[in-house]
Amino acid sequence: MTGNYSTREYREKLYDDLHVRLRDTVILMCAIFIASIGLNMNSTAVIIGAMLISPLMTPIVGLGFGLAIFDTRLIKQSLEVLFTQVLVSLLVSALYFWISPLSYESSELIAR
């Protein structure tokens, strides 16, 4: 979010953006799939690339902003979205590594 927003405008923008949407969930699933491939290939660059396309930033910003202005509703909504996205991430990565023919643990996988 760029521009000169007041606290109220920024809060309202975050409230509008803090929802679990199918579009964000699909992007997150793709990012986790790419990150899992990066872990499997022992490629730090692929893992970082997957982190860049992941839509996890909005709930993290919402949580930080909610804590900064003591807005419990914003904190609660941010945590709900973040926990949902983390759950989706864990399920997708577990599914990938269950299906993947991984026969050994790479140094990247052990480090993560």
UniProtKB/TrEMBL annotation:
Protease keyword on record: no
Any Pfam family the entry gives: DUF389
Residue stretches spanning the membrane: 20-39, 45-69, 81-99
Lineage: superkingdom: Bacteria
Keywords: Membrane, Transmembrane, Transmembrane helix
InterPro entries: DUF389 (IPR005240)
Protein name: DUF389 domain-containing protein
Species: Streptococcus mitis
